Amino acid sequence: MPSLHETVVRPLITEKSSAAYQARKEYAFEVHPEANKTQIREALQKLFGVTVTAVRTMQVRRREVVRGRIKGKTARWKKAIVVLKEGDSIAVFEG
């Protein structure tokens, strides 16, 4: 079982995640590939002091990349979409 700081790797701040935050108050995070929804919920509640109401997860597949003559693949990773209780917020996404 990964620790709290290993479970939540980083927040995902992209155009799509910012639009989801503006429209539906959904937060996006990159999480440990072996973390389940319960572990993600507990880690976010302890790290940020918020109440999580829903967690959705998805595996992001590897893809091939070409850099010059070198071919390679990106690493696979896991994404979590999180909804918080009304009134709670995480300061990273606001501003």
Summarize this entry quickly.
The protein is of the alpha+beta class. It has three helices and six strands; from the N terminus they run αβαβαββββ.
Describe this entry's structure for a reader:
By secondary structure, the chain is α+β, with helices and mostly antiparallel strands. It has a single domain (4-86), classed as Alpha-Beta Plaits (2-Layer Sandwich). It is 27% helix and 37% strand. It is built from three helices and six strands. The chain has helices at residues 4-7, 15-24, 37-48, and strands at 8-11, 26-31, 52-60, 64-67, 70-73, 77-84. It has a four-stranded antiparallel beta sheet with strand order 1-2-6-3. A two-stranded antiparallel sheet has the order 4-5. A hairpin with a 2-residue loop joins strand 4 (64-67) and strand 5.
Spatial order of the strands forming the largest sheet:
1-2-6-3
Mean pLDDT: 92
> How big is the Rg?
15 Å
The parts where pLDDT drops under 50 for at least 5 residues are none
In the CATH hierarchy, the architecture is 2-Layer Sandwich
Topology overview:
Blueprint: H1 4-7, E1 8-11, H2 15-24, E2 26-31, H3 37-48, E3 52-60, E4 64-67, E5 70-73, E6 77-84
Antiparallel strand pairs: 1-2, 2-6, 3-6, 4-5
